[in-house]
Give the backbone structure.
Amino acid sequence: MHQRSGLRSFVASGFLIDWPAHLVDGLFFNLMNRFALGCGVVLAILLFIVVIAALALGGSYNRLVRLQQTVDQSWAQVQNVYQRRADLIPNLVNTVSGAANFEKSTLVEVTNARASVGRVQLDPNKAPADAAQLEQFQAAQGQLSNALSRLLLVVERYPELRANQNFLSLQAQLEGTENRISVERGNFNTAVQNYNVAVRSFPTNLIAGMLGFPPRPFFTAQTGAERPPPVNFNFGSPAPSPAATP
């Protein structure tokens, strides 16, 4: 292109073409404006996509936070009712141990099982993310449940205990606590299920791990776990007297 006064000269197909300068400049600026407009539209589309993605990410994150808080709250309730049961045991053992000739091995089993529960240290306000930790906790609590069941069955052979008002009160509290344990475990499992479904669903599963939301373990059913330990007594039927000691 050559420039002369008021003209722009172009060589096209071997011919020299003179165009008015203002026309050439206008065409150039028009092309530049269209290019800038096209770039602006592309940038606006990209910005829109980024905003939508950020909103979706924020919504998924907030939903996971709410579900995780529900799991932690349910776990805290589970811990509360298990602790309530543990708090009843010392008074129960003291009351039962006052009966003449009561089987000491049964009391030792309950005491040792309660101590085993105390050795399993888990955060009472945050549900465990490690399945092995929850399994250890469940095994210790199951051992204590079994020991209590055997203790209460042995008590049936001691009429003086079945007439003891302190023992009857403790028995009623233990029965209510066992029922609450069953309810709160069910609530916890429901909360974990809702959380795990969200964590593993597309597209949340693409970001859950990166944002620190791993799947959570839940309580598994054990043999006899479909009902709480038997703590009711048939007070209307006669019970045999404790065996005399040699």
Remarks:
- Residues 70-208 form a domain with the de novo design (two linked rop proteins) fold (CATH 1.20.1440.20).
